[in-house]
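Standup notes, structure subgroup. Blocker cleared on the heme C input:
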Amino acid sequence: MKTTLRPLVAALAAAAAFLALPAHAQGAQEPIQPIAPAVVKNPAMVELGKKLWFDPRLSKSGFISCNSCHNLSMGGSDNLKTSIGHNWQEGPINSPTVLNSSMNVAQFWDGRAGNLKEQAGGPIANPGEMAFTHELAVDMLNSIPGYQAEFKKVFSKQKIDIDQVTDAIAAFEETLVTPNSRFDKWLKGDANAITKTELEGYKLFRDSGCVACHNGAAVGGNSFQRMGLVEAYKTSNPAEGRAAVTGKDADRFNFKVPTLRNVELTYPYFHDGAADTLGQAVDTMGRVQLGKNFTKDENAKIVAFLKTLTGDQPQIGMPVLPPSSDATPRPTPFDKKK
Ligand code: HEC
Ligand code: HEC
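Run returned:
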């Protein structure tokens, strides 16, 4: 009991310390900061990463790209309870948004990848996702003259390797930030950027203690926390959370706190995709994390606030991918039953 309550006590202490601030200091002291626009360091690498992001030839089927499950037209997610992988396999867990993922303390719900580069190799070789191997992916790229030339330009190496692939994808992902939300404008001092109801929602969100876990520029993403701190969260999804990485019992059911940026676009919610609507997600969070039953009106206000976190979506021209050559291995869209 003591251990489960410790984060909550810390959360309440943080909230209390925050509330003790004089009112005039709060503008500068909000627990959420605006997102800064992306700084593109290497445009050629970002452009290459964008091509790889959209290239379904990195999958065994020749049909699934990163964008299949992290659709940049849909908030960087697939809006499915769990994703569809190779051979129409039912995925084990909800696909998180890739928007602002460069701000995450680590990648995946359980944080098993340290950063975007480390993460990017995962899905290509995951049999339930793109079902390819790094070797086959690299062979495929090396067989395409257009890619050979572009990789050489960016990396000045003779041959394409998986390291270059993941570097380029990560460089592209770093540009997928969403500044300029209405809430950011409010944070920067534009009092009219959000409505009275939305502001009331923010105050409920802040003063109820949601900000103990959802804070910083990404409004989350920077810690692992127990799902079901005050009340057990019931799910049939077998995911263990952080314990799968650390092996520690204390980390069971700790998940990376998701970013709430663009949360209006990234339904359904939670690692098991069990909450279809924001209203449901807010209701569950109130109960299981804070022991609070929000009224209908409070719930609606918090939802209204959360919708002010939708920022400028990355403006992406669809890349034209270099064509396969005669030597490019052909995809296997269907695993035929023997
Ligand atoms: C078949 C669907 C699917 C495909 C294809 C896919 N992903 Fe994912 N992605 C997921 C799921 C599901 C997760 C969460 C897995 C977990 O946490 O265990 C995830 C997690 C991530 C994350 C971590 C985000 C976070 O907040 O933790 C990043 C970044 C990411 N994917 C990038 C990529 C890239 C890059 C590609 C292409 C090389 C790709 N994904 C292809 C479904 C997919
Ligand atoms: C103790 C830490 C903690 C507190 C307090 C907390 N959350 Fe969460 N929140 C989490 C974690 C962890 C998850 C992911 C849980 C999961 O998917 O199993 C989450 C998920 C969410 C999601 C779903 C996001 C997504 O993309 O799936 C929303 C929305 C949300 N929280 C809103 C809130 C609101 C509103 C409050 C206050 C009423 C709140 N949270 C309080 C830790 C917290």
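Discussed briefly. Residues 7 and 123 are 33 Å apart (CA to CA).
Next: hand off to the docking folks.
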